[in-house]
Write a structure and sequence with these properties.
Helix content is 57%, strand content 6%. The chain contains eight helices and five strands. A three-stranded mixed β-sheet has the order 4-3-5. It has a two-stranded antiparallel ribbon with strand order 1-2.
């Protein structure tokens, strides 16, 4: 009889440990933000004008229905900029090749442009060549799924020029 209770206790302990490991932390890691960029979750949020910075949040059902993947990506990019670690910089450089600014017809969700600006602010010289490559590509915004009646525009090359001027000082 004791062995059944022991097995149950060990099983519950393991389940709780697994759940705690899977729960988002208050302060994000680069790895968790990389998973957010990949669309695996949307745990971390950083609004442009919030004083408390990057933080964990829980979405209610209505928010889950109306939140776009690109908004989660934008929050992850802003949180990475807040971390400023070499791994965060490397991930932001990866955003230059893998993400785009998104035209919604109601405005632009500036995923890549935000990464560009943050790389300029952080000042890591490893971003110079990727930014120059991006500037030569003259990228366009991507249209969101529901964006009918509007056209993709060229992303702001001025943002890239400004970031490069900060980095090349």
């Amino acid at each position: 009889m004791i062995s059944k209770w022991l097995v149950l206790a060990v099983g519950l302990t393991a389940a709780i440990a697994f759940m705690l490991h899977e729960m988002p932390r208050d302060q994000p890691s680069v790895a968790s933000l990389q998973r957010q960029l990949a669309g695996e979750h949307c745990h971390y949020r950083q609004e442009l004008y919030e004083a408390e910075g990057c933080r964990r949040h829980q979405l209610n059902l209505a928010q889950r229905l109306f939140l776009s993947d690109e908004e989660c990506e934008l929050w992850a990019v802003r949180c990475l900029g807040e971390l400023r670690s070499p791994d965060a910089v490397s991930t932001l450089i990866g955003v230059l090749d893998t993400k785009a600014d998104i035209e919604t017809c109601d405005g632009v969700i500036p995923v890549r442009s935000t990464a560009v600006s943050l790389l300029g602010e952080i000042g890591d010289k490893s971003a110079i060549d990727p930014l120059k490559r991006l500037m030569m590509q003259n990228p366009k915004t991507k249209l969101s799924i529901g964006a009918s009646g509007c056209n993709a525009q060229f992303e702001g090359i001025e943002t890239v020029k400004k970031a490069l001027s900060k980095l090349e000082k």
